Amino acid sequence: MHHKPPLPGFAVRDFSLAEDWTFLNHGSYGAIPRSVQQEQERWRQELERQPVDFLARRWPGLVAEARGQVAPHLGTTSDCMAFVPNATAGIQAIIRSFSWQRGDSILTTNHRYDAVHRILQFAMRRAGGQVIEVDPSANPTPDSLRTALLAACRPHTRMVVLDEITSPTARRLPIKPLIEDLRDRGIMVVVDGAHAPGQIDVALDTMGVDFWVGNLHKWVCAPRGAAVLYAAPQHHDVIRAPITSHGHGLGFHAEFDWTGTFDPSPWLSAPRALAQHEAWGGAELRAAHRQLAGHFRDRLYDALDLPNPAVPGTPHTLAMIAVPLGVPTTHVPAAQHWLAAHKVEAPIIPWQGQTWIRASAFSAYNMPDDIEALIALLPKLRNVLRDGT
Known about the structure:
Layout: E1 22-23, H1 26-29, H2 34-49, H3 51-70, E2 81-84, H4 87-96, E3 105-109, H5 114-127, E4 130-134, H6 142-152, E5 157-163, H7 176-184, E6 188-192, H8 204-207, E7 211-215, E8 227-231, H9 252-257, H10 265-279, H11 283-303, E9 320-324, H12 332-341, E10 344-345, E11 348-351, E12 354-360, H13 370-387
Parallel strand pairs: 1-10, 3-4, 3-5, 5-6, 6-7
Antiparallel strand pairs: 2-8, 7-8, 9-12, 11-12
Helix pairs in contact: 2-3, 2-10, 3-10, 4-5, 11-13, 12-13
């Protein structure tokens, strides 16, 4: 049966978001619907009834069951998937699992997430290697990305780390055509899919990558602390958890399932978040996000008097839109505080010497008029960015 895409804001009462804020930043930390908050509280209460029984005896079965429920939504099996606290922890686990040598290099792009950049730099500095960042342009095409990356490959390039969806610029990198090229050169491919689950279709077993990480707390609306690491089977004997603990050397899942006492409720609540995602429409919900993002895009480009890169009225390719403001990056922190003081939540991002504004469109609670609150503040916001006041 065909269903119409959900109307914008149709589930606003399902969230606990403050009504006096305009929340255009689902992409940073997500928002947890009440049904998932209740599921998380149920697990916490279950844990508190008998903590030792829950963590020492029941935990292996509980986490295996949760993995088995989440994996099909990502196009893989639980054999290749482990839970991690966040995508950054997953990247850290991957990088620290390999012995890096002097002269090695890791390739990435200048659209990468800052925390990932720091992980790569730290590893290469210790080893005497190099992180090479390529510039495939502000709007990467398959040709520009492929040309930039392959031209930067060196004899000792061992890994390429690519964003599926970029955080600072809200672009979907055209990585699929590149993966086979890189693997044919013996280069490992790591995909940072922090923004992918719940925003785009994810099919890990057919992607062909060595590793992938993705957050469930963003577009899936799981509790914060729920993320996934995918490792291709050939790496299961190599990959190590970011914290060395009792499962070290005992197998892929043993490495990651228990790295010390923690709150397991985010992982166990992830299946409920995915069920809620599907109940709201699944693919139709994601399409509604893109339609709303297209409206946000058109209004922002029009308000900023910038040439719109897309046909007005068409859906955006993602649920986020990032637009350059045409002002320096000197006063970004002051401008971010100023915007928050006016109860509008949208990240102001310095990237390549430009200041960008990013807006998320989560159609379950955002509405078309939400972008107007930001647009009304844009003239003053640009002044704050220029002079700090």
